[in-house]
Amino acid sequence: MTAGIKDKVVVVTGASSGLGEATARLLSAQGATVVLGARRADRLQALAKEIEGRGGKALTLETDVTHREQVKALVDAAVQTYGRVDVMINNAGLMPQAPLEELKVDEWDRMIDVNLKGVTYGIAAALPHMQRQKSGHFVNVSSVAGHKVGPGFAVYAATKFAVRALSEGLRQEVKPYNIRTTVISPGAVATELPNTVSDPAAAERLRGFYAQVAVPADSFARAVAFALGHPPEVDINEILYRPTRQEL
User: Fold this and answer.
1) In this structure, is the dihedral angle defined by the CA atoms of residues 76, 81, 84 and 85, taken in order, positive or negative?
2) Which residue stretches of 5-111 are H helix?
3) How many CB atoms sit inside 10 A of residue 87's CB?
4) Measured between alpha carbons, how far is residue 84 from residues 10, 17, 41, 65, 80 in Å?
């Protein structure tokens, strides 16, 4: 379904690794122009160089999604350079894991800032442009944890449930502007996300679980391409997928 992707201007947060990096590669290979934001500018630049070396178009900007002005600058750079923004992929995320009784409040705050507020900032940055264009597509990243809560994941799950609620509200409100909205909820995917777990015992358990069942990050990229590749009158609202071996 590359017809729905070719020549689109796609903004991706959290693009320096994992889901965002894989998505940038795949969409670029299918003809999209990618605008990449993340905190690790060196990795962004390396990815852009790789994409351009294959004949693609890529623009990068160091972006911390906890700062609204930086997310706005990323989207504005896409519009200033390419004239529009067709897709906003709010992907940046963290997954610290620990029981609530450990009171890791700083980690809770950080998860809320990145996983939830970062998505709201992405919407705030791109929505006015899409309203003006009368077209666009938001892809927001939730998780299996946005459908099912597990021990040690209470705050993470809360942020991902919230992303689903936010996405559904957005879907209902943007109908007059011909804007589409997709929320994707992956299960265990081989990314750097387990590295954000600070609790040593929890980190060891999670890495062992991921080593056994996790699927490659391009599984997520293909889900994005599936949602984007449909005709404008088809709105793929939600995708939930897991590794075949994942029980929870």
Assistant:
1) negative
2) 18-29, 41-53, 68-82, 105-111
3) 28
4) 9, 25, 23, 20, 8
Residue 165 CA to residue 185 CA, distance in Å, equals: 13
Tally the residues of the chain: 248
At 211-229, the pLDDT tens digits run 788 999 999 999 999 999 9
What is d(CA 118, CA 159) in angstroms, rounded to the nearest whole number?
11
Taken in order of first residue, the domains within the chain and their CATH numbers are 2-240 (3.40.50.720)
* Nearest to 7, CA basis, from 31, 34, 40, 35: 31
Please tell me the predicted confidence (pLDDT) of residue 193. 67
- Decide: residue 3, CB within 10 A, 0-12 exposed, 13-18 middle, 19+ buried: exposed
Number of Cβ within a 10 Å radius of residue 238: 17
Which residues does 125 contact at the CB level (< 8 Å), separation at least 6? 68, 71, 72, 74, 75, 76, 88
Angle at the Cα of 238 (from 236 to 243), degrees rounded to 5? 120
Give, as one character, the DSSP assignment of residue 214. Answer: P
Strand segments (E) across 63-208 = 87-90, 136-141, 179-186
Active-site positions read: 156
User: Half-sphere exposure of residue 121, counting CA atoms within 13 Å on the CB side?
Assistant: 25
Whole-model pTM over 0.90: yes
Q: What is the pLDDT of residues 33-61, one digit of tens each?
A: 999 999 999 999 999 999 999 999 999 99
Is the CB of residue 34 less than 8 Å from the CB of residue 65? no
pLDDT at 197: 75
Name the amino acid, one letter, at 199. Answer: D
Nearest to 98 by CA among 196, 208, 197: 197
